[in-house]
Protein: DUF4192 domain-containing protein
Organism: Actinocatenispora comari
Amino acid sequence: MADHTRVTLPLAVAIPDGMLTLIAYLTGYHPSGRLAALLADEHGDWAIATYELDDPQLLPHLIGCAHRRRLPLIFLASYSPLDAAADHIRAVGAGVRGEGLTVVGQVQVNRGHYRSLDGVRDVWGDWQRAEPDTLVAAEMVVQGRAVLADREQLAAQYAPATGPARDRMTAAAAIAQRFWDQQHRHDQATARRALRAISLRHLDQIDDHLRSEPTQALGLDDMDVALLGIGLRDETVLNAALLRADRDRGYRQVWAQIARRVDHADLPAPATIAAFTCWRCGNAETAAIALHHALTADPAYPLARLLHAGVTAGPPAPSWAHLTRPSAADIDPH
């Protein structure tokens, strides 16, 4: 399941075409084999939750999400051609209504067509073509969102590079690691400070790149990426990267690119940074994809495990500055 954070739309959203358009942009792809639930209130605030069709926690999670976010209006869409999927979404709708929430529509979607499942089975609507809502699409583009063909295409943006690119990166990482191992043996403290300074300069370079050339590819070569991957083992560098990455979609793309390129041993940190930025930008499903790669590389990586718990539980993403702010007990334990 994936519970996405809230977005605000300054326009009315038509049922069902506007709703289906919004689902695609908020998930980042055209769903298949999933149930999507749009949640809203009367003030233009929206959230989305998506589920595998056989998820046993679908109904309690959806109801909890709606109550927690105070979004009582729900639109349900089942992306499956099966008759069983139609019966399933109707059962979900009944469960939602039983908790005092309002179902504004429920549709079944297949290959760009939909049919309404409102009313009794004998009067379910005919299949008709879903037409993208241009006003909703324009607003989503303004907010920096895009739609890919499917979830696999989205996941590929976070998968480690393969082939010659991976071979070059592995060689660069080996050279960088040998160099810093030698420096550590000579003077560990000085080497740590030097690597931290180099890594922070690379973060400055990323900032400059996003300000001046946000549509261009990041200009870090393989050795730069290898050094940054090693540098992110330092907590100071990791915190600096997370503070800069808060709520900036450009950083999401940059860290996805870095996560694809770094050595396998250093993948958890940049993949987790990419995940955190996705979560802060309102896309928990993409965050879950990035965290999957982080935890595949290192199942025990603490920050990835922590974020995975937060993304799965479904609360809005806090800022990194808020998470790292000292508590009153930290400041004055007495």
